[in-house]
Amino acid sequence: MARRYVGLAAxxxxxxxxxxxxxxxxxxxxxxxxxxxxxxxxxxxxxxFRSKETRALQxxxxxxxxxxxxxRAADVWKKVEGSEGKSCMSCHGEAExxxxxxxxxxxxxxxxxxxPVNLEQRxxxxxxxxxxxxxxxxxxxxxxxxxxxxxxxxxxxKVSVKTDGPMSPWFERGKQIYYxxxxxxxxxxxxxxxxxxxxFMRADFLSQGQTNGFPxxxxxxxxxxxxxxxxxxxxxxxxxEPFKPLSDEFLALELYVAWRGIGLPVETxxxxx
Amino acid sequence: xxxxxxxxxxxxxxxxxxxxxxxxxxDAEVTGDAAKWIETFTGGKPPAKGKIALDLPEIAExxxxxxxxxxxxxxxxxxxxxxxxxxxxxxxPNAGVATLSFTPLSGKAEASIRIRLATTQNVIxxxxxxxxxxxxxxxxxxxxxxGCGG
Amino acid sequence: MADKxxxxxxxxxxxxxxxxxxxxxSHVMESGQRKDAQGKAIPRKIINKFACEFNxxxxxxxxxxxxxxxxxxxxxxxxxxxxxxxxxxxxxxDGTVITAEEKIAFKA
Lengths: 273, 150, 108
Prior knowledge:
The structure holds 3 protein chains of 3 kinds.
Chain A: H1 3-28, E1 32-33, E2 42-43, H2 52-59, H3 66-76, H4 88-92, H5 95-98, E3 108-110, E4 115-117, H6 119-131, H7 141-152, H8 168-178, H9 189-193, E5 200-201, E6 204-205, E7 216-218, E8 223-225, H10 227-237, H11 248-260, E9 270-272
Parallel strand pairs in A: 7-9
Antiparallel strand pairs in A: 1-2, 3-4, 5-6, 7-8
Helix pairs in contact in A: 3-7, 6-7, 8-11
Chain B: H1 6-21, H2 32-42, E1 48-49, E2 52-55, E3 59-60, E4 66-72, E5 82-89, E6 96-102, E7 109-115, E8 121-129, E9 134-143
Parallel strand pairs in B: 1-9, 3-9
Antiparallel strand pairs in B: 2-4, 4-7, 5-6, 5-8, 8-9
Chain C: E1 6-8, E2 12-13, E3 17-24, E4 47-54, E5 57-64, E6 73-80, E7 84-92, E8 97-106
Parallel strand pairs in C: 2-8
Antiparallel strand pairs in C: 1-3, 3-6, 4-5, 4-7, 7-8
């Protein structure tokens, strides 16, 4: 072999390995096949869009800081509060069995309120109606911890919201919000998370905007962040006036976005950037 | 197949050296607060290269939580072990990050922590062995700021 | 009240075996660099020291600065020459100390 080819071979080999790396990263982004009529062909969890370091934080239950919240709430579950002298456990027993699957199917229709409620609202309904205790404020550590604890009981189970019957106008409302451009930047949810997922927007690697890992431990905030706070953040980022957490608008959006991730395993407490 | 002659070996070696060096910037001179931390730790004695494997992501997904792992070559016996390891970040408002203290009971001079990096910068580790010898290693971590995650 | 620290290590080890220990503790690690909504600096409040000893002998310790992420994670190794108890401590700037213990047995 002529000597000039030896150096060339080394370069070719290097180029090939870079190419292999890029392909490997793409191939790593695994998803699930979407049902017929869905917007995506493949539904992909936000986990797949994160760096290997961030994924490693989620993969190990000891290293995952979200579990600090899960463990805190496991104690609160047994704590008696309010004038009825009850704890969560007084009615629901062991969360490991009674709460299994609950978090995977939220938001859910509430016959009494004649509207869907999400997990945070359901927890607070229990507190004010059955325990006669003060409801927790949205974004309070207590409410986010308990939401994460209950949702964690569904970890690995498929996201399975109902969107028909009385839920259908809420679903349509959520869909409408998803495709509406907001703010000075004039962006819809769809602009980033449907049309441009898998691409960079400035420093951000855009995901499909799935909700299966919420509440999620965000590296940025170094704490668990509930879904409606993330919605608020997105709207703030596009320089819009955000809807209020637990508003009908965000509830409709939560329902619609949950459907966009139908079948994904619940990952709570997940780790995201 | 015939043996590679001297010139071919040079060409191959050259290609290899180029490939290994290309992504790694030469170690920058440490100045400011970081230099003061090192000075206090080493007593002004210059550290040697080697022995330290410092593992950090090339690009941090978020500067608030950057995983750092360190592994230092040492028998970790009562006679020869790694005593203290200073970790500093030269672009943070305060350069100090942590000082790890090992003993022969550590078994291995290995540790992982999570650190905050305010901006793209060098993370520097200086190890002090039980015989007083010093080693240093550094890694550049790119920190992206200004996205939805920032 | 502080939360219970999370610690992971094997239940038992062979004599002379080097084991890995993972620890995670809940703490805001307020750096002193941040400002509140009124623009006033939030005072520093961090865990400034972590230490681990085994049957009273020091195994590993570290001095921590504000550049350590919230909810400090520390992973290190320990050589087990006898059965016994690991003691862990996290010292806060305000002087409070969070402590925990884990036992390890010899492999039969």
